[in-house]
Amino acid sequence: MTILRLSSRTHHLDQSFLAEQLKGARSYRRIAGYFTSSLFEIAHEWLEPIPDVRIVCNVDLAPEDLKVAQLREARMLGRWNERSIEAESLLNRTRYQRLDAFLAKRGQVIRVAPDSVCGFVHGKAGVIERADGQKLGFIGSMNETRHGWQQHYEILWQDDSPEAVAWIEAEFEFLWNAARPLPEAVCREVARRGRRVEVQLPALDSEATLTPAALIESPLYREGMALQPWQQGFVTECLRHYHDHGQVRLLLADEVGLGKTLSLGTAALTLCLLAEKAQKRRKPIVIFAPATLCEQWQTEMLDKLGIPCARWHSSRKVWLDPEERAISPGGPAQIARCPLRIGIVSTGLMVQPSTEKEVLAGISFSLVILDEAHKARSRQGYGPDAGEPNALLAFMLAVADRAEHVLLGTATPIQTRADDLWDLVRVLHRGGTGFVFGNDLAPWHDPERVLPILCGAERVDGLDYGWRLLRSPLPTMASSNEPNARRLFRNLREALDMAPAAHLAGALSDLPLDLRDDLETELERAIDGATFFQRENPFVRHVVLRKRTTLEERGLLERIAVHVHPDGGLVQAPHRFNALFQDNALRTTPDFDRAYEEARAFGRVLAKRGQGSGFMRNLMEQRVCSSRVAGLNTARTLLAGREIQEETEDIDAQLAIQTDAERAALASLITALEGMDDDPKLTAIRFYLKDEGWLALGCIIFSQYYDTARWVADALAAEFPEQTIGLYAGADRSRLYRDGQAVGIEREVLKRMVADREVRLMVATDAACEGLNLQTLGTLINVDLPWNPTRLEQRIGRIKRFGQVRPAVDMLNLVHRGTVDETVYARLSERMRNRYDLFGGLPDTIRDDWIDDLGTLGEKMDQYIEERRQATGFDLRYNSSIMPSDAAWRDCATVLSRRDVENLMRQGWSG
What we know:
This protein is α/β, with parallel strands linked by helices. The chain has 39 helices and 30 strands. It is globular and about 100 Å long.
């Protein structure tokens, strides 16, 4: 038995120990410290012939992260990518190639251990079984890296005694058994970096590689996340349209929570790159979205895709960067001179007369995106304007005429009439070459005529009518995924000698007899109960719709149940619960009842103005229902003579006090609110966090108002001083609380702290919720009720996502008894409870005119759901595009420089 003590001061440890002992060895067991790509950089040539190699490393993953394979991969990749990918790949290409070759040959010989088991693996040790069967143990300070063995000052203790070897082997086996295999995604990233080459845009030959080359090292991928298969599928669909028609005209109607912003944003980047590659004139790209979503768009584009966008501020008349800084001169005319390639503008500005609206209507755009597109529709009712386009639809029809590409996004493609879908597809049709609806005489322009066909209520068996439906627009071969239809379209085009982009075919008599027979056969054939024109029609070609239930059935989304609270049957302390709640609502205090009545009185005074009274009447009620603080701050702002701005269904509404009666009503409201001792909602939050254990499960608390969110965060920081609490809000208003103190904090840092489980209690506003992944938290509280089921779905989608270790999450909705909120929520909950995956079946917003008669609110919702259910057949095509692609984007080794992509997106509008 021999003990040797070695120091890098007196020995070259890599040669005098490692090389000497590993040559001809049978096995190598190594506790290697932190995982890096240089594990085999020094010992590779000596390890390669050893038949049995096992290495256990440390990686700072919590055990909850290790339970879910996808999350384990994402978290480890995110940690690994915190260093510069560009420099790492360039300087260490050989290292990555060696590691990739070793892993490809040996399989899972590396495991990673979570922090909770071992903390940081600071002890480094190993056992080498030499050729003669003798085992040698060693302990030292060096990591399994080139620097560790060659450059750092390190010490090493060698001991071949059976006791020492057995002790090290026992430690190794404990860590090995507690660890998990090196994630497959990490192995693939090793291989990708070994092949990585940075190129300029003209060097990319294939359109299919354009987007992954630009995104593979975007913030999304650096964090270990990725675009989902159905999001990639949408980009593929855009490329198909671009290739077939030279233009892209699509309505993305995926159900809520499937990431439309990323899909549309990635499509915008792709089309921008295609134009640049073709050396086309750089034209503006604009995204129109409701005011409440503009900041979300800007944040998501930068935080996920690394694309800087400018946002137009409707009041200040200036372009803003993501930090709310003005980056242009002021004035309405400046809207034509966006300093970045992509500008984001509120749709509220487009539905009323304004200089900005006139200016934008005269610009030729490369791409126009409209989010929440269902708000662009024909007017309903029986007045003189019935059937005419509303202001937003009229504007979009005009803008689409001057746009090369048009993308529309909505989670509710049909509101209460099927005509609404036609309105949106008519927008797509405008400015195109006719390939959407065909020529002016094509039947597809008339919904009453073709809707029964699309819904399957009417079959088309006659060859004459079938050909009339098919000939204009005649699909391209690539427009269908169904083999028989693709063959038919190809043969028709060849027989009629049609140009690839032509869409108007000749008369039926021009077809050869055998092709007429083929067409008749296809018209008679049903697939999965769907007739030919249910499968092959302009709407299927231009409306992309994927359902959450389909994705869950395919294993692409996890099924996570939602327990909806308040529910007395789900709580552990029913007596305290009953003191707080009655049915679905909070019991109120006389002080609150007095304040709420004053808010209603103020609304009645405002309603005397007439126009816009629905918004004005409800504004103060909603804010008082949110919190005492939100109501007080709003009332004081108005009484001080300042203006309140808020997005409604149709306009960006501004409210300022005009009369003495309004001032008197405001003063009475303020007096009532100032007289409130406590807010019942804060008591309920404390009950669920403490008595029901939600704090231990991790909780996110949402409000649509920053005033309420800040108040809740401040109050909980005082209640739980030992907790680290985050406030996640727009611009520079995010904060971090601990031990009675608070500091400002960047949103990205706060997100990382939640992912690392350093923050278990978060308060957030809706303005920031889109880019927030909170699967480490298990419960959610809605302090206030947005009259928008889509927003509720977006909120629960923050925790109901892959990586959530709870099979069912809990959501609490807080509404006060006796308020309009209670009535709205009661109607919603009747339709949501036990069917929480209904998503697209609920209206996107509760309209003011529905609130006017609360007794019929449920009936109006049911009518909405039933009328939407009738218009099916638009989602029969895209199931094939929701599966993972064979050409995995994550493996893309040909990379566009992030600097080049960002510089391209910083090219402003010429104006």
